[in-house]
Amino acid sequence: MTEDEKETKVSKDVKKLRHFEEGMLKHYQSFLQVLENILQDFRRVRRQDNKQVKQGEFHLAPEVHEAEKLAIIANKCMCDLLLRSPAFNFAKNLMASVVPRMCLQQPEEVSHSPP
């Protein structure tokens, strides 16, 4: 909302609605950032684990399994949000995060969203 729109005289109901919408968008954006952080953490943990494998330690650390579970859930959430409201705010951010993962050779849960 622009400064001019904020300064325009409106009814109490409109003010309440604007306040609610601003809060909802703020929290929605924070939620999307949490999902993206989960996916970034998984990539970081996976890279660290790959370094250990190259050094001769041939086991996956428990952190990798836990991070993978969270990454699957985060990716499913992003796909569901994008499918249900493709024109909603931050849809471009969702697509920028989801599309690169669509062709990865990962467990089916990571690359596909349930119907």
Short note summarizing the structure:
The chain has five helices and no strands.
Average pLDDT metric: 80
Helix content: over 70%
Task: Tell me, briefly, the overall form.
Answer: elongated
Number of domains: 1
Our measurement of the CA-to-CA distance between the termini, rounded to an integer number of angstroms, reads 35 Å
- pLDDT < 50 stretches: 108-115
Order of helices and strands: HHHHH
Number of strands: 0
DSSP summary: helix tally: 5
Classification by helices and strands: mainly alpha
The main pleated sheet reads as: none
| CA-based gyration radius | 19 Å
Proportion of beta-strand residues: under 5%
Describe what this molecule looks like in 3D.
With 115 residues, this protein is mostly helical. The protein has one domain (11-111). Helix content is 72%, strand content 0%. The chain is built from five helices and no strands. It has helices at residues 3-7, 12-54, 62-84, 91-98, 108-111. Helix 2 packs antiparallel against helix 3 and helix 3 (62-84) crosses helix 4 (91-98). The longest helix is centred in the N-terminal third of the chain and has 43 residues, at 12-54. It is elongated. The model is unreliable at 108-115 (pLDDT under 50).
Please give a handful of descriptors for the protein shown:
single chain; 5 helices; mainly alpha; 115 residues; 72% helix
